[in-house]
Structures are given as structure tokens and as C-alpha cells.
């Protein structure tokens, strides 16, 4: 038996490549690399029973999984593009291989394929919406989330505006009594923020519980344990930076969520929600780390939260040791949440790009 090349017909969509190979009773083997497909089969083609083979150097990378569907007359091969993009041609080399021809049964030009994509998206949206509509408590859930976000937005806006005005009027002096003017409102907002761990837990919002837990536990340790329980920390400038960094993101995040509750999306607000965390988050963690470091000697001196030990093991177990471990956890938490937010941003921006197309 000699190895022959079968006739291959191709067409594309934004996400897929369709290949139709004219072979019957084919037993297929294939190998695929990011930009290369090697396809071999034993089957019945134009020249009878033979080994058939072809290879393609793709114009752009494709995914490693290939799906085959053999019928009595032909083999349909679907290859997924790595990026959802229209290709100018199938192969890397400009000259089309002789065995390859357009599959006019499936052929669409770019604008028709876009229309097909939009139709599919519309159908998906309708089916998702009809599934959602089945939830009898949806209105109640959205109402609760809207009110929660509104209250948080008002709280953090009060904090942000108050601190900004005081900064303009008092300059650096405002740093030192931030805690006494802002703490009550911050206590209120951060206690409410515990709901952000509960919401995904009970399925009210579709996001991970762990990132929210890191965020809420992380902030509340700083607020209640470091600032709240040590008077010596309360008139330090670091309180200003921690509170200012926290409230800056929240005056964008909560209105973004409020709009999401009423299925509205403002481009600039979405961009701000998914972008300004990039400088703010590391700065926030840095400010929090400075607060923890400044509190270590105070905990050592006051022995607050120290655990008394039997005399053979020393006098007591200082809370500052726990805080040193916590410092390491903070940077681990920063890494986990930075990655989470980065993924959320990419997902959001990608879905926006698709909507615009
Ligand atoms: C287990 C305990 C371990 C303890 C370890 C302690 C380690 C300590 C580490 C400390 C690090 C914390 C540092 C931090 O305090 C510093 C700062 O905050 S500095 C200031 C800058 N900070 C930020 O930018 C972070 C802001 N916070 C957040 O973004 C969130 O809290 C976070 C959990 C990090 C991410 O939020 P989420 O996962 O919810 O992502 P999305 O916003 O994209 O939302 C996903 C979808 O859910 C919908 N959603 C979410 N919440 C709501 C809501 N309240 N109302 C309505 N809808 C909501 C949202 O619309 C998205 O929907 P869709 O998918 O349809 O777009």
C-alpha cells in the first residue's frame, strides 16, 4: 500500500477550523502541536483502500484537542483556535497546498461568521435569562445586593470625602487623628463586609469564597486587632494611608456592583473597578505591613494577647510572634488575590470585547 494525500476541504469560524476529509471507513490517527497538524488514516478514498496522510502548518496556534466525526463517506475534523480571531488564511505558507480547497458547504466570510456568532450569543443569553427567570427570589436577592452595595458605597464615600477634605484643610496634621474621626464608620463598613464572605457561600454572587475571606479577614485583623486594640497605633500616620487606600477602591467597586444588580454596565466605571486595584492592592498591603511592623514592639511591651506559659518554657508566648507569621500570610494573600483579580479583569475585558464585536 502506498501513502496518498486525501482531498481536504476547510472552513473557519472565529473559534474553530473545520476540515472535511473525503475518506470512507477511515481509521484515524493524528498528532497535533500548537501550530501543526499531522493527520494519518487508513481508509477508502479516490484511489481505493490506502494509507492517507496530510499535514498542515497553521497560520496561528490551535488548541491540543482535535475532534473527529466519521461518517460513511467522510471524516469531519474540528480544531479549536487558541484565540478567537478570524484568520486571513489557513496555513502559514501563503501558497495553498494542492490537496486543500474551501468547503463551500460550510464557508462563511468574516462578517457572516460574526453575525452567526452574535445570533448564538443572543440565543445563549435568552436561554440563560429564561433559566434565571425561573428563580422566584431573584428580585429579592438583587434588591438585597443593591441595598448592601448602596450602604457600603455611602459609607466608603463618606470616609473618602471626609479624609480628602481634612487633608486639604489640615494638610499632614490630618494624618494623625484619622482614626478618631473615621474609625466608627470604618468599623461599621468592615463589619458589614463580612456579608461578602456569606454572599458567595449561599450562592447570592457567583465568585470564590476564599478571595473574599482573605480580603475581609485581612482588613479586619488590621482594623480591630492592630488599630482597634492598641491606642498607641491610633494616632500614627499609617492609619491614614490604610484607610485612604481601602476607601479609594471601594468608591468604584460598590457602584459597579450596584449597576450589575440592575444589569447596567458603565464602561469607565468597569474599567476603573478592574484596573485601579493594580497599584492600590500592593500599596494597601504595604501600608498594612508597616502597621503590623509598627505594632510589634507595642505588643511586646504591653504583653497584650500574650499567652502565659509554664516557667520551664519561658514566661509567655508573645502575640508579636503570631503577627510575624501573619506578615508572611499577608504577602501570600496578596499573591492569591492579585492573581484572582487579574483573572476577573481578563474575563471581564474579554466578554466586553466580544460584546463590542
Ligand atoms: C482564610 C483566611 C486567611 C487569612 C489570611 C490573611 C491574609 C491577609 C491578606 C491581606 C490582603 C488584603 C489586603 C487588602 O486589605 C488591601 C486592600 O484592600 S488595598 C485597596 C485595594 N484593594 C482592592 O482593590 C481589593 C478590593 N476587593 C475586591 O476586589 C474583592 O474583595 C475581591 C474578593 C478581592 C474580588 O472580588 P470578587 O471575587 O467578588 O470579584 P468581582 O468583583 O469580579 O465579582 C465577581 C462577580 O460577582 C459579582 N459580585 C461580587 N460581589 C457583588 C456584590 N456585592 N453585589 C453584586 N454583585 C457582586 C460581580 O458583579 C461579578 O459578577 P459577573 O461575574 O457577572 O461580572
UniProtKB/TrEMBL annotation:
It is a multi-pass membrane protein. Keywords: Coiled coil, Endoplasmic reticulum, Fatty acid biosynthesis, Fatty acid metabolism, Lipid biosynthesis, Lipid metabolism, Lyase, Membrane, Transmembrane, Transmembrane helix. The keyword Transmembrane helix applies. It catalyses: (3R)-hydroxyhexadecanoyl-CoA = (2E)-hexadecenoyl-CoA + H2O; a very-long-chain (3R)-3-hydroxyacyl-CoA = a very-long-chain (2E)-enoyl-CoA + H2O. It is found in: Endoplasmic reticulum membrane. The chain crosses the membrane at residues 143-165, 185-205, 212-230, 236-256, 276-299, 319-342. GO terms for molecular function: very-long-chain (3R)-3-hydroxyacyl-CoA dehydratase activity. Residues 3-91 form the CS domain. GO terms for cellular component: endoplasmic reticulum membrane. One of its GO terms (biological process) is fatty acid elongation. Catalyzes the third of the four reactions of the long-chain fatty acids elongation cycle. This endoplasmic reticulum-bound enzymatic process, allows the addition of two carbons to the chain of long- and very long-chain fatty acids/VLCFAs per cycle. This enzyme catalyzes the dehydration of the 3-hydroxyacyl-CoA intermediate into trans-2,3-enoyl-CoA, within each cycle of fatty acid elongation. Thereby, it participates to the production of VLCFAs of different chain lengths that are involved in multiple biological processes as precursors of membrane lipids and lipid mediators. PANTHER family: VERY-LONG-CHAIN (3R)-3-HYDROXYACYL-COA DEHYDRATASE (PTHR11035), VERY-LONG-CHAIN (3R)-3-HYDROXYACYL-COA DEHYDRATASE 3 (PTHR11035:SF20). Belongs to the very long-chain fatty acids dehydratase HACD family. This is Very-long-chain (3R)-3-hydroxyacyl-CoA dehydratase. It comes from Salmo trutta.
Amino acid at each position: 500500500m502506498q501513502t496518498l494525500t486525501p482531498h481536504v476541504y476547510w472552513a473557519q469560524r472565529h473559534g474553530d477550523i473545520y476540515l472535511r476529509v473525503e475518506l470512507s471507513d477511515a481509521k484515524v490517527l493524528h498528532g497535533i502541536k500548537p501550530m501543526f497538524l499531522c493527520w494519518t488514516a487508513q481508509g477508502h478514498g479516490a484511489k481505493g483502500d490506502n494509507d492517507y496522510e496530510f499535514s498542515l502548518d497553521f497560520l496561528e496556534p490551535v488548541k491540543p484537542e482535535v475532534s473527529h466525526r466519521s461518517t460513511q463517506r467522510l471524516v469531519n475534523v474540528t480544531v479549536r483556535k487558541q484565540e478567537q480571531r478570524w484568520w486571513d488564511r489557513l496555513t502559514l505558507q501563503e501558497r495553498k497546498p494542492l490537496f486543500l480547497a474551501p468547503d463551500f458547504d460550510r464557508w462563511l466570510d468574516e462578517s457572516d461568521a460574526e453575525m452567526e456568532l452574535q445570533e448564538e450569543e443572543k440565543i445563549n443569553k435568552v436561554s440563560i435569562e429564561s433559566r434565571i427567570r425561573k428563580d422566584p427570589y431573584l428580585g429579592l436577592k438583587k434588591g438585597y445586593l443593591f441595598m448592601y452595595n448602596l450602604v457600603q458605597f455611602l459609607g466608603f464615600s463618606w470616609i473618602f470625602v471626609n479624609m480628602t477634605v481634612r487633608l486639604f484643610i489640615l494638610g499632614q496634621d490630618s494624618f494623625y487623628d484619622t482614626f478618631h474621626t473615621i474609625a466608627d464608620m470604618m468599623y461599621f463598613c468592615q463589619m458589614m463586609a463580612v456579608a461578602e464572605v456569606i454572599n458567595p457561600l449561599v450562592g447570592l454572587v457567583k465568585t470564590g469564597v476564599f478571595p473574599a475571606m482573605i480580603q475581609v479577614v485581612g482588613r479586619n485583623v488590621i482594623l480591630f486587632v492592630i488599630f482597634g486594640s492598641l491606642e498607641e497605633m491610633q494616632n500614627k500616620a499609617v492609619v491614614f494611608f490604610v484607610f485612604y487606600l481601602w476607601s479609594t477602591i471601594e468608591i468604584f467597586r460598590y457602584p459597579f456592583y450596584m449597576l450589575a444588580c440592575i444589569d447596567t454596565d458603565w464602561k469607565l466605571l468597569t474599567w476603573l473597578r478592574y484596573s485601579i486595584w493594580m497599584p492600590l492592592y500592593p500599596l494597601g498591603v504595604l501600608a498594612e505591613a508597616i502597621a503590623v511592623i509598627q505594632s510589634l514592639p507595642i505588643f511586646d511591651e504591653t504583653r497584650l494577647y500574650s499567652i502565659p506559659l509554664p516557667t520551664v518554657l519561658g514566661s509567655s508566648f508573645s502575640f508579636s510572634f503570631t503577627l510575624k507569621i501573619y506578615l508572611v500570610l499577608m504577602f501570600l494573600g496578596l499573591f492569591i488575590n492579585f492573581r484572582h483579580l487579574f483573572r476577573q479583569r481578563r474575563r471581564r475585558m474579554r466578554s466586553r470585547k466580544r460584546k463590542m464585536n
